Amino acid sequence: MANTRISYNSNLLHNIISPEELQQFNDAVAVAETALVKRSGPGADFLGWLNLPATTEKSTLVAIDAKAAEIREKADALICIGIGGSYLGAKAAIEFLSPSFEALRKPRVFFAGHSINSDYIADLLDLVTERSVAVNVISKSGTTTEPGIAFRVIRQWMEKRYGSKEAASRIIATTDPCKGALRQLAIDEGYATFPIPEDVGGRFSVLTPVGLFPVAVAGISISDLVAGAADAMSFCKGHTVEDNMAGRYAAIRNILFRKGYTTEVLANFQPQFHFVGEWWKQLAGESEGKNNTGIFPATLDYTTDLHSLGQWMQEGVRNVFETFMVLRKTRHTLAVPEFTDDSDNLNYLAGSSFETINENAYRGTLLAHIDGGVPSGVLSVDDRSARTLGQLFYFFEKAIALSGYMLRVNPFDQPGVEAYKKNMFALLGKKGSAELAAKLSLRIGGLGL
Ligand code: PA5
């Protein structure tokens, strides 16, 4: 049995979901698990992530580590260009596993192409002017607008600074193994490349080179990350809520959804979890929000947000359930010092560690929210290690895939993201969209936009 470093506790939900009710959901767990394993459900062409931790060759990890070592040697800044699933996994891992402040990290990994903003890119290029720079452009399709235009600017900047040949040796493209615009450009320009397996979609790609290469450059053990995910394969399988931790979490989410709790808040008590939450939000939202159904995924960072949205969580609309994501062990332990004047009346905390105080903030919040009518579960995460994070990543991927099948949607497509793109392309004058552009312009005029 794998060393389990995460656990999901649903005992606190007994007054809302009886043990019998949860047991009755075993059938749904079994059906969803079978559809995944037998590849008989919707989106079966995109299940490459399911066995990835077990099938990733050691030689693949060695090749990623070798290129990362070369970049660490050569550059002190890596700019990763990507959006959505081509950005959030690496960002989540680096934020969770690295020191809190970017300035303390070497080499520094920066992200771009996840928004459309001149100031951001101009400021980034200003910042790296004095540094030796490498670029990792990440896009499975190779045609996504945000990273595409960011890469144009950054590529031009690199070529001007280093000359075309040297610039090309500093650019690594992570993209589809055979097709697409970025693959072709990489061939034409001679960029080093990493493949994104064809059967792995963006939001399930953190354990492919999409996530692994930037993470390796940041000095994190990708072998540990993948080993953690492989651990999770053993406790996230099976046909019952007892055997299958991911199945239990997926079942709880679906039972609560059917009872009218349509929003899930993933709440953490450690700032290093912020981007794990962002990654989860995309994974859950893009996988489940379709066919006019889906649990709305939201995240909160406590105790920060207890001083903002805490009021809403305590007394707002009761359509929310909460999953507390709790870290068991921080890397440092600071204690509160004693002051004789005690002007702030905090001497009663003197000698207590921040962790003890945070633990009690968590317990107090959990009980208050339960009393306020928010069904709550607890996801415990042992520590800030790559192995533990690997378990967490895989657990969430498997749980959301199962949960999507329970919701009767295809968790592996995202047809809805095309709607805004179609409009944006037409408004920007893309060839072939004149008719739509005319219609949109009329609406825009009518609305005074
Ligand atoms: O999960 C997904 O598929 C999306 O979020 C994509 O990752 C995102 O749109 C970026 O796509 P691409 O890697 O093709 O640039």
Task: Please tell me about this protein's structure.
The chain is of the alpha/beta class. The chain has two domains: 6-43 and 226-406, Rossmann fold; 52-221, Glucose-6-phosphate isomerase like protein, domain 1 (Rossmann fold, 3-Layer(aba) Sandwich), CATH 3.40.50. It is 48% helix and 12% strand. The protein has 18 helices and ten strands. The chain has helices at 19-24, 26-37, 52-55, 58-74, 88-97, 118-128, 145-162, 164-169, 181-189, 209-217, 222-235, 245-258, 274-288, 310-315, 354-371, 386-406, 418-427, 434-447, and strands at residues 6-9, 77-81, 108-112, 133-138, 171-175, 192-195, 263-268, 296-301, 320-327, 376-381. Strands 1-10-9-7-8 form a five-stranded mixed sheet, with helices on both faces. Helix 12 (245-258) crosses helix 16. The termini are far apart. The structure holds 5-phosphoarabinonic acid (PA5). 5-phosphoarabinonic acid is lined by residues 83-86, 139-141, 144, 147, 201-203, 286, 414. The site of 5-phosphoarabinonic acid (PA5) has 14 residues, from loops.
Strand content: 5-15%
* Annotation, overall tally of beta strands: 10
Total domain units: 2
Structural class, please? Answer: alpha/beta
User: What is the CATH architecture term of the largest domain?
Assistant: 3-Layer(aba) Sandwich
